Amino acid sequence: MTTTGTTLVIGATGTTGSRTAAQLTAAGHRVKAASRSATPIAGTAPVPFDWYDPTTYAAALAGVDRVYLIPPVGDTDPAAIMLPFLRQARMAGVHRAVLLSSSAIPEGGPAVGAVHQVLPDLFEQWAVLRPSWFMQNFTGTHAHARSIRDEGVIWTATGSGRVGFVDAEDIAAVAVRALTDEQAPNTDLLLTGPEALGYDDIAAIITEVTGRPVVHRRVSYEQMRDRLATQVPVEFAAILAGMDRAIAQGTEDRITDTVQRLTDRPPRTFRALLEREMRCS
What b/e readout covers 25-39, taking b as 16+ CB neighbours within 10 angstroms? Predict the structure, then answer.
């Protein structure tokens, strides 16, 4: 790794943002931690930032030369919000941008796929992280984690489809390399864990490791969409349910060597994550 300037981490209190900020500071890099409330984060300079408030942009960008981008959550057209910020970032001296996207969204695809498409035109140094589904969806504040705690059930429209679930710590480790290596990746990076698992497998592992019975309930696309629509806008619920349907069709049944290749260590297994969380709880 090379010595870097200052990285603006947007979404610094979120699942990957918090871990990226922590790993950057642990490695001795300077970090401005951006969140709506400028939450203090050890080793960083907190700064207020709101995608929907352009008056927060200038102060957040002051003195930074690279940025980790978490799109606005739940926005079906993030490009409309993000592109004006990215143009301002380039004018302010940012020369490297690392965007968090999704394995389910290709370059030029819907939502953040439109941002992915233009990122190379805006920055000479860039990367797009396209992780599979987060393992932390089953342990944090995600709807799956809540239904596991409240009902002992995981609800999906994925059928028997499998997913290369990935640990957010591994996503952050790749983000740090993409932000700080002397040569930027200048490509998109598909990130998975070491194995593709179905939701039946996930339920069985949780049951085995925690001792609490958890089952996977299979529902239709329509049932999943309607269930999600009680928690998020209906348009976004339809997108999420559609991702479940795509999993059922096999689109996420794959693993990659990206984490191993960029971090020089294997990605963590879901069982290892659960065992670690059990030790820390």
Answer: beeebbbbbbbeebe
Instruction: State the pTM of this model.
Output: 0.95
94: burial class by Cβ within 10 Å (0-12, 13-18, 19+)?
Answer: buried
Q: How far apart are CA 23 and CA 27, in angstroms?
A: 6
Three-state DSSP class for 76? coil
Give strand ranges (E) for the chain: 6-10, 30-35, 45-48, 66-69, 96-100, 125-131, 153-156, 162-163, 188-191, 197-198, 215-218
Segment 8-33, tens digit of pLDDT: 999 999 999 999 999 999 999 999 99
Looking at residue 214, its amino acid is: V
Q: Look up residue 252 and give its two tokens.
A: 């996420």
Closest to 71 measured CA to CA, from 21, 125, 22, 113: 113
Cβ–Cβ under 8 Å, residues 50 and 35: no
Closest CA to 61 of 79, 42, 40, 47: 47
The tokens for 214 are 């958890």
- How far lies 135's CA from each of 73, 115, 281, in Å? 18, 25, 17
Can you read off the two tokens belonging to residue 211?
């001792």
CA atoms within 13 A on the CB side of 79: 13
Each residue's pLDDT tens digit, 142-192: 899 999 999 999 999 999 999 999 999 999 999 999 999 999 999 999 999
Relative to beta strand 162-163, strand 197-198 is: antiparallel
Please answer whether residues 158 and 199 qualify as being in contact, where contact means their C-beta atoms are separated by less than 8 angstroms: yes
